Amino acid sequence: MENHFEIVEIKEQVLADNDKAAEENRRMLSENGTVLLNLMGSPGAGKTSTVLEIVKRLGRKYRIGVMEADADGDTDAKTVAETGTKVIQIHTGGLCHMDADMTRRGLQALGIRDLDLVILENVGNLVCPAEFEVGADLRVMILSVPEGDDKPLKYPLMFQISDCLLISKTDTKAVFDFDEASASARALKLNPGLSVFPVSARTGEGYEAFCRFLDERLQAARKGGSAT
Ligand SMILES: Nc1nc2c(ncn2[C@@H]2O[C@H](COP(=O)(O)OP(=O)(O)OP(=O)(O)O)[C@@H](O)[C@H]2O)c(=O)[nH]1
Ligand SMILES: [Mg+2]
Ligand SMILES: [Zn+2]
Question: Is the CB of 48 under 6 A from ligand 1?
Answer without folding.
Answer: yes
